[in-house]
Amino acid sequence: MDEKIDTTEQHDNSSEYYASKPGVLHIENPNSQHLSKPDQVAAIDAAVADPNLTLESFSHLDIKKILWKIDMRLIPVLTILYLLAFLDRGNIGNAKIEGLSEDLHLTGAQYNWALTAFFFTYCAFEVPSNMMLKRLKPSIWLPSIMVAWGIVMTLMGIVQNYGGLLAARIFLGVAEAGLFPGVAYYLTMWYPRYDVQVRQAVFFSAASIAGAFSGLLAYGISFMDGVGGLAGWRWIFILEGILTVVVAVVSFFFVYDFPETAKFLSNEERAFVVFRLKYDGQDADTENSQKVAQSDEFGWKYVKMAFLDWQIWVNIVVYWGYVCPLYGVSLFLPTIIKELGYQNTTAQLLTVPIYVTAAIITVIVAWAADRKRVRSPFIVTALFFQLAGFIICISTGKAGVTYAGIFIATCAIYPSQPSNVTWLANNLAGSYKRAVGMGIQISVGNLAGAAASNFYRSEDAPRYILGHGLEIGFTCAGIIAAVVLIFNYRRINAKRERQLANNEHNG
Question: HEC profile for 206-234?
Fold first, then answer.
């Protein structure tokens, strides 16, 4: 196992709502649905704090059935939300080859700056957004920010110059900032560490599906060129923006908050989910008396702990190792393929098989990682395949070979994201520290998108040697950082095991 285990203090409570029988937990409260949500949370937390409670207390529950119920309520909705977010973020690449740059009279540098501006506000607002998500209801916060970016996207369809496009991209970054880090953290509040990656992968695979869908959608919408006196690229922004707003409004009724108040779970099922999460950092064979609960209380000390945690900053370098290529590919793939000599419509369609394959591989890798209970081997392997893909791209000018290289690199890029986000989440104990830590990882990590927005310059077409070379450099940095984390986690785990053997470990 290559994950470090960190724990915090346990807090004892009691409740008049719950009673247990020896060996099996039974929660009797027919009126619990009439309690306020804070009272429901307090009651569940009090039941879970019982020092005599163990996993065996829930042995009468069907765990697979519980996970399936959670999966069906959470994952489809979250996947649709992220699909639309990534679609709206990256569709500017499709709009470009349909005439955006020509109609707005953009220079190559201005187009790249429009891409870059998005990431400055996107990264700046991710940590605050995660803290807001923890303090407010996900069912309100997530759909609200989605309505905001849908409106911005729709208005992007009527910009008339470079200044308008730049302003729209800046506000799009503000609105979208909370979704990915928010959902990545939100899932850790429902699933324990060895169940969460495959869910993260299904959710994140929406990004690759968005890439495929974006190409197909742009191909279809391009035939609306001239409708209403608007260019086809404007309709790409307008129609996709309206779709986002409609889905956001509907999602207000389908996004749940946290397990303690989930109406689709019984009281005992809620307690089971919360108990597993509370002691998620424990080994299976840890004595019950030695189990230490993860802290769920707010404190600025947890924010400070997150900012001072060395592993977060090393992990960010791993993050850069695949996010630079991720944004380079998502923003420029249609242009790269077009510059290889293909027509606009063919270039749009040739992006589809790449993204569909990447989505399938992402889910398969996540399933294997959860089953094997390790993350790092899959991350490092993907980074090496990614490296091979870009080496192929930079070594030739032949269209077919370059397309194959991009295909390999993209299929390796996408599995790394859920693996790495889950890897760090597994090693951050305490929900507030994890919320802030994941926000830091994703916000600072996504600054790489600002850099990647300038990798593929128009003057470097059609081979884009500089762009491919920079992707190779970031990939190598990611591999080195991953190796540093692996060896340090092994050292920490070995030390912890020695302390446990000598009864010296204090949690």
Answer: HHHHHHHHHHHHHHHHHHHCCHHHCCHHH
Residue 191 backbone dihedrals phi, psi, to 5 degrees: -120, 140
pLDDT of residue 5: 38
Distance CA 313, CA 108 (A): 33
pLDDT at 211: 67
Distance, first Cα to last Cα, the chain: 18
Identify the DSSP state of 366: H
Q: Which residues of the chain have pLDDT under 70?
A: 1-35, 207, 211, 281-299, 331, 344-345, 348, 430, 503-507
Residue 383: per-residue pLDDT: 97
Q: Distance between CA atoms of 374 and 105, rounded to whole angstroms? A: 50
Measure the CA–CA gap between 207 and 473, rounded to whole angstroms.
24
Amino acid sitting at position 485 = L
- Of the candidates 184, 123, 85, the residue with the CA atom closest to the CA atom of residue 443: 123
pTM across the whole model: 0.73
- Residue 310: CB atoms within 10 A of its CB come to 9
According to DSSP H, which parts of 49-107 are helical? 63-96, 100-103
User: Is the CB of residue 192 less than 8 Å from the CB of residue 136?
Assistant: no
> Do 435 and 130 meet the contact criterion of CB atoms below 8 Å apart?
yes
Q: Considering all CA atoms of the chain, what is the largest pairwise distance in Å, rounded to the nearest integer?
A: 77
pLDDT per position as a tens digit, 170-221: 999 999 988 888 888 888 889 988 888 888 888 778 767 776 777 778 778 8
**Tokens 């992707």 — which residue?**
471
Place of tokens 């769920």: 296
Q: Distance between CA atoms of 2 and 194, rounded to whole angstroms? A: 13
Q: Residue 89 has which token pair? A: 């973020």
User: Sign (positive/negative) of CA torsion 52, 53, 55, 56?
Assistant: positive
CA distance 319 to 443: 10
Q: Give the DSSP H/E element, type plus range, for residue 20.
A: strand 19-21
Strand partners, 24: 21
Bridge partner residues of 19 (DSSP): 26
Please tell me the distance from the alpha carbon of residue 208 to that of residue 410, in angstroms, as a whole number. 9
pLDDT at 331: 66
- The tokens of 182 are what? 């928010």
